[in-house]
Amino acid sequence: MKEQRRGRKIAMSPEEVDAFLTEERTCRVATAGPDGPHLTPLWFVWDGAALWLNSVVKSQRWTDIARDPQVAVLIDGGHAFNELRGVEIRGRLESVGEVPRTGTPDSALAEPERRFARKYTGRDEMHYDGRHAWLRLTPQKITSWDFRKM
Description:
Layout: H1 14-23, E1 26-33, E2 36-46, E3 51-56, H2 60-67, E4 70-77, E5 85-96, H3 107-121, E6 132-146
Antiparallel strand pairs: 1-2, 1-4, 2-3, 3-6, 4-5, 5-6
């Protein structure tokens, strides 16, 4: 993975990145659309090594990713300037499991689905609607900032 070169004074430590990605709820996924960048919000979970996205498969985002899986994902928070913090993750998305997901047992998805269900519903069981599938982003580069360190 590429190392962050700029803004090292305000960069988050790996432990701070893990904590931030665990607590935040919404990311923005930038894909390359036919008419230029396409930016959409999604819920996600972080497992310490990869970002897991649960996406509608009949969407512009899914079509864009099938054509070009290289993406940038932004997770940020804060209101006042000196509170701003965030993480940008760049890499290639890959589909994991059945498309669309109907709940067929899949050991590769057991942990992301447990984390996702717990984070967004407070339960351990995932709800399957037959419209979503899983995308995994293994970071090629992570850039972080925390203006509270200034």
